[in-house]
Amino acid sequence: MSFKKNILCIGAGYVGGPTMAVIAKKCPDCRIVVVDISAERISQWNSDNIPIFEPGLDKIIKETRGGNLFFSTEIEKGIKEADIIFVSVNTPTKTFGEGAGMASDLQYWEKTAHTIVENAESDKIIVEKSTLPVRTAEAMERILKASNRNIKFEVLSNPEFLAEGTAIKDLLEPDRVLIGSHKTEEGLKAAATLVDIYAHWVPKEKIITANLWSAELSKLVANAFLAQRISSINSISALCEKTDADISEISYAVGSDSRIGSKFLKTSVGFGGSCFSKDILNLVYIAQSYNLKEVADYWEMVVKMNDYQKRRFVQKIIKEMFNTVANKKIALFGFAFKADTGDTRDSPAIYITKKLVEERAFVSITDPKALDNARKDLEGIERLAAENGEGSGNSGIADGHGGERVKLVPDPYEAARDAHAIALLTEWVEYKDLDFEKLYRSMKKPAFIFDGRNILDHKKLYEIGFNVYPIGMSHFTHFE
Ligand code: UDX
Questions:
Q1: CATH fold of 221-480, please?
Q2: Ligand 1, from 338, 429, 454: best to mutate by most atoms within 8 Å of Cβ?
Q3: What is the CA angle 43-45-48, rounded to 5?
Q4: Residue 401, pLDDT score
């Protein structure tokens, strides 16, 4: 069978995998190859056990893989064959040098641009899918045009707005698709080619075209605005705890204003995920580099407020548990940055675990999907405990906990056995339906619950015997 278009996607991660699967399903006239430098990742995509959990993804992969969707490590071959190349390699925050902790680390991305130039034999449309700092397309163009060969590259920006856990739904029914291009004849022609692909299933009025720089910046701004709403409501949650106000009533009342809307006003232990902090800090860095200090400070506060919310949560646990958690067992319910995903990147749980270990608590972590990632995130945490003065002599580690500060326990009942407290960090629905009487019976008394997502039935928990601490509303305790 011959295909109308050959599409290549470089990077088989959270964005590349699901996006290409949906394009493959909706565009049977396109042949799509997804490549990655990690052979292990590609073999997972080719197996029955695909590397990411995303509701509905499995089914689409089964339908399309081997038909018009292929996963491969042959990057050079893929480049030669492709008409359109999506680039969705990771752009983590720089950990070194200029802009460390804020700017994007573009080394993978630059390497990709060089690989494209070296292997291309015909004109290509290059689509930036990774979230990139504004004006990255310009840098990509410079690399691509430096080749002196008679090949034309047209760079488009097509930022991804999917959220994890709802990726397939977001891709099938997007609020909008954004395509940025140069406003030249070639640029507009390339944009039209990409519009045609999305038009296979997205209504035309939802496909927005813009200039390249607007498209790049829109992605950062969308995430900054969403995160800002969460930081705003979280800042008010702290105020509620000092007064008799109730954050859920405030969210409802404020969100009922149609100009404001009800989404992203749920208070929490803080936002996480691969995008929010990273994108805002990127925005801050860009503003700083243009000497826009006030703009940079304004957005940086969104991230600082999030750090404050995480810190506040741990401080509350310590304070309410009689100012010490040393050698107490705390069960963390949920480690993923939100429900319905196994992703733990930037999850508040990482910070909370580390802080509790610093305070010498024993932490047992449970999560339906994220324990493998938790293990990686917490590598070296035993060392952290050691640096904290433990590990030699009379450290108190061995009292029946097997010497391990942190345990990963798939079964929540097992995780909570003999614990002094449960801290709920991720809003998995299954946690609402746990048998809390059974949990209570197996725990040390007085038993505490810190509900970092406000999803539990606080009054009922109180009646069972727990001391209950939600976020941004009155707590229920059995103490005088
Ligand atoms: C986000 C954006 O939504 C998406 O458009 C972008 O492309 C990538 O970043 P994602 O990180 O997958 O997607 O998750 P999202 O559902 O946006 O949640 C982000 C964080 O905010 C989570 O930790 C979530 O628990 C938290 N959150 C969300 C709240 O604390 N309160 C809310 O009301 C909503």
A1: Rossmann fold (3.40.50)
A2: 338
A3: 95
A4: 42
